[in-house]
Design goal:
three-stranded antiparallel β-sheet; Jelly Rolls; alpha+beta
Length: 174
């Protein structure tokens, strides 16, 4: 009897999904490369996981997303994480959790080496914002950060709002 139950269950389960190191959609987003490992279309909207390669000087400015919980695991390098609660130097092996509620936060790679972060957002949706503002690139190809003139900033702010994000001036957390 248990054997039959097991076979029955097995036919309704999805297979594991694997991505090789060069697979998945890689986007140039504001000078960094974001590789979408799992998006909302893969997880029925439950979460998205993004592999972020952040060059020296890179990282998002102050922003908030009240309805999204976000985590970062620093795989390599280091980033300075700023929020309304203070500043934290996140080195390799560090974990950062931005709870729902809209705390303003951002991070910068202030080192001379690239930083790599594994980011998960719950629920999914933030990856769609990155797809809107980013540009597809090869995994090893870096594009310079776009020039942020008034029109570009206005466009990004409008898109951010569409995806439940608030964007603040670069000096907001200083």
């Amino acid at each position: 009897m248990p054997h039959t139950l097991f076979n029955h269950m097995e036919t309704h389960q999805q297979s594991p999904v694997t991505l090789g190191p060069q697979q998945g959609e890689t986007l140039a987003v504001m000078g960094s490369n974001y590789r979408i490992l799992a998006g909302g279309h893969d997880t029925a909207g439950a979460y998205a996981t993004i592999d972020m390669l952040v060059p020296p000087g890179g990282g998002p400015g102050p922003h908030a997303h009240p309805d999204i919980e976000e985590t970062f695991f620093v795989v390599a390098g280091e980033v300075e994480v700023k929020s309304e609660a203070g500043t934290y130097l996140a080195t390799e092996g560090s974990f950062i959790r931005i709870p729902k509620g809209g705390v303003v936060h951002g991070f910068k790679n202030k080192s001379a080496q690239p930083a790599r972060l594994l980011c998960t957002v719950v629920p999914a949706g933030l990856e769609e914002f990155f797809q809107e503002i980013g540009q597809p690139v090869a995994p090893s190809e870096f594009l310079p950060p776009p020039v942020l003139d008034a029109a570009a900033i206005q466009r990004i702010q409008a898109l951010a709002q569409e995806y439940g994000q608030q964007v603040f001036p670069p000096t907001y957390l200083d």
